Amino acid sequence: MAEAERRAFALITGGDNGIGLALAREFADHGYDLLIAGETESHVADAAHSLSQNGARIETFAGDLGRADQVDALIETVRRIGRPLDIACVNAGIGLGGAFIDTDLATELQMIDLNVRGAVQLSKALVKDMVARGEGQLLFTSSIAATMPDPFEAVYGATKVFLRWFGEALRNELKDSGVGVTVLMPGVTDTNFFNRADMLDTRAGASESKDDPADVARAAFAALRADKDKVLPKLKNKVMGAIAEALPDPIGAQVHRGMSEPGSAG
């Protein structure tokens, strides 16, 4: 059997930056070959080059997974490669901060298409293939934002709530199939998210105590190995998440507002 066939194989969407790239590094460090998907071909190529340094075989896909035809193209890429996916990380997503009455509707609809519709479309095909084989794991990147209402991130937060409960529901449905599902719920993490989401002037965006994406990836990998239903990396996030779950929703919303309201950094 060829070396590539003996190595485990993982898909990471949004694998060219941020938490996705950290996940890709974590998998590569543990002997996985990878298929990384990202929107920009040059970014995907740069990520693939850096990830291949330790001997991992890296396949790439560049496309907008907010578009149905591009999700179909990614699914066809997986099938063309012809290797069963041991793990699929449904991680690609974007955010947008600001008051709902002021934010751009087109961007919010794009966010729903990528974070929600694209995740469902991709998962449908991958889950069917995994169940047919009787093995495999999925990781959905949700957020600690899914533990409370999210003023000034109203649409983004709703997409992360969707991913949380979508993943938890699938886990229950698939419990006797040999296929596991884990939901990753990171806290404030040191990526380009806050810049892209126009949230650098918020308390969350300006925080100097953001989590390291590598720590988030390590926690996610450990949770997959342990077949956990969900993981909130770092003790502080576990505590924050537990408090948020226990608070009445209006109070939880006010707590989140303190982190996400434009100008709160000052």
Automatic annotation (TrEMBL):
Pfam family, one: adh_short
InterPro entries referenced in this protein's UniProt entry, alphabetically: NAD(P)-bd_dom_sf (IPR036291), Sc_DH/Rdtase_CS (IPR020904), SDR_fam (IPR002347)
Record key words, sorted: Oxidoreductase
Entry superkingdom: Bacteria
Similarity annotation: Belongs to the short-chain dehydrogenases/reductases (SDR) family.
Protein name: SDR family NAD(P)-dependent oxidoreductase
Lineage: Bacteria, Pseudomonadati, Pseudomonadota, Alphaproteobacteria, Sphingomonadales
